[in-house]
């Protein structure tokens, strides 16, 4: 009897070795969990090394896959090199990089953002992804279905003046990664997600309160809800797996559909 057709075969990541930055919690943890659940070996690199190890242990127990965590300040080039070396040593190579790390605070008065605010935002949200990508590149170039996937933000493509430093840094990330996709043509696939509001602890730290969340229930949000980490993880699995093998140089919206919704009041 012929084996039944498996429509999910190309979403499996057995044999793939993945680095997920900012993967200790929230969206990053969801991404790490889904990729491990699809069969990948995963290294979680996070500023909070203790939380990264804790999350990795939970994912390994749940999925049965080799999942590890270690501390990494992605604005520190030496720390990036250490994560890349540790991952390659543990897994025998790197086939997939998810540049998920990123954060941005609220600036209610966009005329009062300091130069240092912009510099730090670019270092964390854009330059770190470039450095991590280049550090992984020698391994990615040797891998089958090598992929870089980036967590960008819907604020990179729509007016977001109350989170101006973050939004402009994410816009830089998006443009940079399209250029890198062309630079690495036929060697490594490179794509980004423009992610909408996913209600996690991180958004609370950025100042989004329940009243602001209610404002997101706007007619322009076609799905009618804010996002879940799993919504983003599902899209990342597609982009990173062989199922996304004909997709590169793309910026894909994952935000519930619709148009502009301002997050903050005046």
TrEMBL record:
<keyword id="KW-0521">NADP</keyword>
<dbReference type="InterPro" id="IPR020904">
    <property type="entry name" value="Sc_DH/Rdtase_CS"/>
</dbReference>
<dbReference type="InterPro" id="IPR036291">
    <property type="entry name" value="NAD(P)-bd_dom_sf"/>
</dbReference>
<protein>
    <submittedName>
        <fullName>7-alpha-hydroxysteroid dehydrogenase</fullName>
        <ecNumber>1.1.1.159</ecNumber>
    </submittedName>
</protein>
<dbReference type="GO" id="GO:0008709">
    <property type="term" value="F:cholate 7-alpha-dehydrogenase (NAD+) activity"/>
</dbReference>
<dbReference type="GO" id="GO:0005829">
    <property type="term" value="C:cytosol"/>
</dbReference>
<dbReference type="InterPro" id="IPR052178">
    <property type="entry name" value="Sec_Metab_Biosynth_SDR"/>
</dbReference>
<comment type="similarity">
    <text>Belongs to the short-chain dehydrogenases/reductases (SDR) family.</text>
</comment>
<dbReference type="InterPro" id="IPR002347">
    <property type="entry name" value="SDR_fam"/>
</dbReference>
<dbReference type="Pfam" id="PF13561">
    <property type="entry name" value="adh_short_C2"/>
</dbReference>
<keyword id="KW-0560">Oxidoreductase</keyword>
């Amino acid at each position: 009897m012929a084996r039944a057709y498996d429509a999910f075969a190309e979403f499996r990541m057995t044999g793939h070795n993945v680095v997920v930055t900012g993967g200790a919690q929230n969206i990053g943890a969801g991404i790490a969990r889904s990729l491990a659940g699809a069969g990948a070996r995963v290294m979680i690199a996070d500023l909070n090394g203790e939380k990264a190890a804790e999350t990795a242990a939970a994912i390994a127990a749940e999925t049965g896959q080799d999942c590890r965590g270690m501390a990494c300040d992605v604005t520190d080039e030496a720390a990036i090199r250490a994560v890349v070396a540790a991952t390659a040593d543990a897994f025998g190579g790197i086939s997939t990089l998810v540049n998920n790390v990123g954060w941005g605070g609220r600036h209610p008065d966009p005329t009062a953002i300091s130069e240092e605010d912009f510099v730090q935002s670019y270092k964390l949200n854009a330059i770190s992804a470039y450095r991590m990508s280049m550090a992984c590149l020698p391994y990615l170039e040797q891998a089958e279905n090598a992929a870089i996937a980036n967590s960008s933000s819907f604020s990179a493509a729509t007016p977001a003046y109350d989170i101006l430093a973050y939004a402009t840094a994410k816009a830089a990330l998006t443009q940079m990664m399209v250029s890198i996709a062309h630079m690495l043509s036929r060697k490594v696939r490179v794509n980004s997600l423009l992610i909408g509001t996913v209600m996690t602890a991180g958004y609370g730290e950025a100042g989004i309160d329940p009243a602001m969340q209610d404002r997101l229930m706007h007619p322009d949000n076609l799905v009618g809800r804010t996002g879940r980490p799993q919504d983003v993880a599902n899209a990342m699995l597609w982009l990173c797996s062989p199922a996304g093998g004909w997709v590169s140089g793309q910026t894909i919206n994952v935000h519930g559909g619709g148009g502009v919704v301002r997050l903050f009041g005046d």
